[in-house]
Amino acid sequence: MNTAVHMRGAHATWRESNPITAYLGRHKMSRNEFAALAGVSARTVQAWQWGSSSPAADRTQELSTLLGLKPEAFRRRWREWEGARPGQHQPTKP
Questions:
Q1: If we measure between CA atoms, which residue out of 84, 86, 59, 87 comes closest to residue 74?
Q2: What is the DSSP letter of 68?
Q3: What percent of the chain is modeled with pLDDT above 90?
Q4: What is the CATH number of the domain that holds 55?
Q5: What is the Rg, in whole angstroms, of the alpha carbon atoms belonging to the chain?
Q6: Which of 3, 49, 53, 69 is most exposed, with the fewest beta carbons within 10 Å of its own?
Q7: Is position 8 within any domain?
């Protein structure tokens, strides 16, 4: 398989595993609806979903409440998701 095609597929799969994207799918909610609840633009939510930006620290409480998570659980899931980005070097365990 062409490496570029494989990476595009891997990125699409990675984006689908985004905590916000997963929530939207489970709750049949649109990006616009979620953005309105979170008090941000749909473009901001899209940037979070695509990994081009991360929610600011002051949004953690509100987002975790929307997703039904405790703030630390939200932060942990977000870090795990970011750490799984395709093409990113994964540290090896000793």
A1: 59
A2: T
A3: 72
A4: 1.10.260.40
A5: 14
A6: 3
A7: yes
The residues, any chain, with a CB within 8 Å of residue 87's CB and separated by 6 or more, are 7, 10
Asked whether 14 and 51 are in contact (CB, 8 A), the reply is yes
CA distances from residue 71 to 10, 14, 89 in whole angstroms, order as listed:
28, 22, 27
Closest among 12, 23, 19, 6 to 85, alpha carbons compared: 12
The total number of residues written for the chain in this structure: 94
Give the pLDDT mean for 59-74.
Answer: 94
Contact between residue 31 and residue 42 where contact means Cβ atoms under 8 Å apart = yes
Is the distance from CB of 42 to CB of 35 less than 8 angstroms? Answer: yes
